[in-house]
Design a protein that fits this description.
heterodimer, A: 168 residues, alpha/beta, six-stranded parallel β-sheet, 42% helix, B: Rossmann fold
Chain lengths: 168, 184
């Protein structure tokens, strides 16, 4: 592979038009966060909690930007009201780039209870999602980002532990 | 002076800014006093007014005023650190501090006790923090808008609400007219 998974991820997001990024850190997303810190083409800032991040994304989306929030999957639990009563209520496109921490191989036991719920929770929240297990799956990102804009919707990209293993 | 009386004095100063207004009775009162395209009334998501304001300020050249409440800021204190570190010059956070959860039955907030949001904002990194009585707030806000420098204003007013209906605007109508006012 000529470039890292982190680089490919960001390249796909930016190619889709994402130009405003916020992050709540996750070890699996550290590579992407490092790249965003150095990227002068986009606006990037860390936030203190996922809910706050959705607030910032809403503001940027109102101004016509396409925002992306980087977060751990467990942060979905902190975000549900913001997603429903702000992002979806006003139909604001937002891309959620989420680490997926529930699958076999996950070393931290406390990640599992929330992690196993996340795919079903995304369905329940009516958030279109893709789950990237291997590098070839990254090709699905661009159409999903386009869909966020067309459908004026939040969309989610789940990134598997195994996919990022080589970069942490 | 209560929140409604304060908002009456602020409306003329806010005409050229993008205004994000706290959920519930604050939005109902602002809407009743003057309903303008440059007002974004939060219809849900309590606590996120400051954050929406910061996201807007980072992505537009226009001046942005986030009209917050003490109870709502207490729900999202982390955003004061983000604002303290990353607020651009066009963001003014105006916290209407009446020491009360006005929309839910006027329960006391901790700002009616020992908590100073001005001190929290300073500690969180904001360089320009002004605490003033409601009566002086329109003048302070006008000065801050002219100075074009990030500021946090904590405006102390008495508790109390006007009985008003829910803001009767469809979210998509509100979104679209607000977007148009950004482009103007």
């Amino acid at each position: 592979m000529s470039s890292s998974v982190s680089t490919q991820l960001l390249t796909n997001l930016k190619a889709g038009g994402c130009d405003f990024f916020v992050s709540v850190p996750c070890k699996l997303l550290a590579g992407q966060i490092q790249l965003l810190e150095k990227d002068s083409d986009i606006c990037y800032l860390p936030v203190t909690r996922e809910e706050e991040g959705f607030g910032l994304c809403a503001g940027a989306s109102l101004a016509g930007r396409l925002p992306c929030i980087l977060m751990q999957d467990s942060g979905l639990g902190n975000s549900i009201n913001a997603i429903k009563s702000l992002i979806q209520f006003f139909q604001l496109p937002v891309v959620m780039l989420m680490s997926y921490r529930g699958s076999p191989g996950e070393p931290v036991p406390a990640q599992v209870p929330m992690g196993v719920l996340v795919p079903e929770l995304l369905k329940l929240l009516q958030i279109p999602a893709i789950h990237c297990h291997q590098p070839a799956d990254l090709a699905e990102i661009r159409p999903l980002v386009d869909h966020a804009r067309v459908a004026e919707s939040a969309v989610a990209i789940l990134i598997d532990f195994q996919l990022m293993e080589g970069e942490i | 002076m209560n929140r409604y009386e304060l908002l009456e004095t602020l409306v003329p100063v806010l005409e050229d800014a993008l205004v994000v207004c706290n959920i519930g009775i604050p939005s109902q009162e602002l809407h009743a006093i003057s309903d303008r395209d440059n007002h974004f009334y939060m219809l849900g998501s309590m606590g996120l007014c400051s954050s929406i304001g910061l996201g807007l300020a980072l992505t537009t050249q226009k001046r942005v005023v986030a009209l917050e409440g003490d109870g709502a800021v207490l729900m999202n204190l982390g955003t004061l650190a983000t604002i303290g570190n990353r607020a651009p010059d066009n963001l003014i956070l105006l916290i209407i501090d009446n020491g009360s959860y006005g929309s839910t039955g006027d329960q006391a907030t901790y700002t009616s006790g020992e908590t100073s949001l001005a001190a929290v904002a300073r500690g969180a990194g904001s360089q320009k923090v002004i605490e003033c009585p409601g009566e002086e707030t329109a003048g302070v806000l006008a000065d801050c808008l002219t100075a074009r420098r990030a500021a946090v204003i904590v405006s102390r007013v008495a508790a109390g609400n006007r009985p008003l209906p829910v803001v009767p605007l469809h979210p998509i109508v509100l979104r679209e007219r607000f977007r148009q006012s950004i482009r103007k």
